[in-house]
Design goal:
Length: 437
């Protein structure tokens, strides 16, 4: 069996608001209903978790201005997903919920407290997607001149996790006594200062909140660079990743397993999920037609600008300065943003792709192309997982009620008929369900 998760790829923001099935999404994107309905559908389908991307600025990396990002609603707006998770938790019972948290900018004490609060609110279903954030603009929103250097961010993130974990552990098991007759809430001898003093962070502790049902909320991570993978291998319960093709997926899983063993962990303790965006329709032919329609939409002038703006945001390099009809120049050593994305752009440029081709293909980066009827796509997924050996797929489809239903009520029943995904939840907490197989 393999796991399923859902990536809310544009965060708590506009969701396919111009699409043909967006309903009242353009007017009501800031209300929780679409997310609540999505989470309920995914829970009906037995998804392990729903994860919310996040960012902390309006970018201006493309053309040096905010215009493209605001015009197209790209990477902005972003409301705070931690609060949304509290509301979704109230409307669901089993699905894990992971907001993104920046280890570079969220003070560890504050993040430890928010995540424990969510773990209580959801009855043990909270997690944090720990990112280091990549843009100088985010750093400037928090009072820094510019962002920390790439590998330093991961060193800081490691220490951040150590500190947050110490805060979560600052209440020993049994510290909460709740003896009404003796008039004792908690046993002070079991709640400890931590007096953490690291290279980057300091905190006295204890946390002013007792541990949630999971103790340590689930930790997720996404960075694909060597520093990012090493961080994930030490700290994560799940990794969201986009290696391309079955061989790439296999190699990614093996690399993470090796790094986990080196860090003294068992490879089974972390589930690697591969990003896909399946196109599912009633028949294979209809799904291929739908894919063709999407590809036409992606060739528009607006789509080209959107792709260039997104690439500029990821890398921190303004792609408006390069000739669209030439391969990119060598940008080695000039990137402080996402190194794994940049490595991909560099490879495609070496292979002779022009910037225009690279940009127009940008939106389709996924681990596998999955197109067809529910049964066809289920077969493709099962076959790939059989070869890769686990652990599951991260679906990054549009969020509108029709698309979500196609997955939850079309694709997942087909997967269940093959016996490759769960048909219910065996445990009460997120981590137990995640580690069940
Ligand atoms: C599936 C996926 C989801 C991500 N979600 C976020 C996010 O919500 N916020 C963020 O700042 N970065 C996000 N990232 C970026 C990563 O945290 C990381 O910065 C990026 O993958 C580059 O990492 P690297 O420099 O280690 O390669 C995501 C990356 C991937 C692959």
């Amino acid at each position: 069996m393999f796991h399923l998760a859902w990536f809310v790829g544009s965060g708590y923001s506009l969701q396919s608001w111009r699409g043909p099935w967006s309903g009242v999404g353009a007017q009501e994107w800031m209300r929780p209903q679409l997310y609540v309905d999505t989470a309920r559908a995914l829970e009906r389908a037995g998804f392990d978790y729903m994860i919310f991307e996040d960012g902390l600025m309006i970018p201006d990396a493309y053309q040096g201005k905010l215009d493209a990002y605001l015009r197209y609603g790209l990477e902005a707006p972003r409301l705070d997903p931690t609060m949304l998770v509290g509301i979704i938790g109230q409307a669901t019972e089993h699905i894990g919920l992971i907001p993104t948290i920046s280890t570079s900018f969220y003070p560890p004490f504050m993040a430890a407290r928010s995540l424990v609060t969510l773990d209580h609110l959801t009855g043990g279903r909270a997690g944090g997607n720990l990112v280091t954030s990549s843009s100088h603009r985010a750093a400037q929103n928090f009072g820094y001149e510019q962002h920390f250097e790439h590998d330093l961010r991961y060193r800081m993130a490691d220490e951040w996790v150590q500190l947050v974990t110490r805060l979560w552990d600052s209440w020993e098991p049994g510290a909460v006594v709740l003896d009404q007759e003796a008039d004792i809430f908690a046993d002070a001898s079991k709640v400890h200062e931590i007096n953490f003093e690291g290279e980057f962070f300091k905190s006295r502790g204890p946390l002013n909140a007792p541990p949630g049902p999971q103790g340590r909320p689930v930790i997720s991570q996404a960075g694909g660079s060597p520093a990012g993978r090493a961080f994930a291998a030490r700290n994560s319960d799940t990794i969201i990743s986009v290696p391309v093709g079955v061989e790439g997926m296999k190699a990614y899983r093996e690399d993470i397993s090796d790094r986990m063993v080196a860090a003294g962990r068992k490879p089974d303790e972390c589930k690697v999920m591969y990003l896909v965006n399946p196109v599912v329709a009633e028949t294979d032919a209809e799904a291929r037609e739908e894919l063709a329609r999407r590809r036409v939409r992606m060739r528009s002038e607006g789509a080209l600008h959107r792709a260039l703006a997104t690439m500029s945001y990821f890398s921190g390099i303004d792609f408006s300065q390069f000739d669209l009809d030439q391969p990119l120049p060598d940008l080695t050593g000039k990137v402080n943003g996402h190194q794994s994305s940049m490595a991909r752009y560099a490879k495609d440029s070496e292979d002779g792709k022009t910037l225009r081709e690279l940009a127009l293909g940008h939106d389709v980066v996924e681990s596998l192309e999955l197109v067809g009827s529910p049964d066809t796509v289920a077969a493709q997924m099962a076959e790939a997982m059989e070869e890769v050996g686990g652990d599951g797929f991260l679906l990054a489809c549009d969020i509108d009620r029709r698309t979500v239903a196609g997955i939850a009520d079309g694709l997942v029943p087909a997967l269940r008929r093959r016996g490759v995904v769960r048909s219910g939840y065996g445990h009460s907490t997120f981590r137990e369900n995640l580690l069940e197989f």
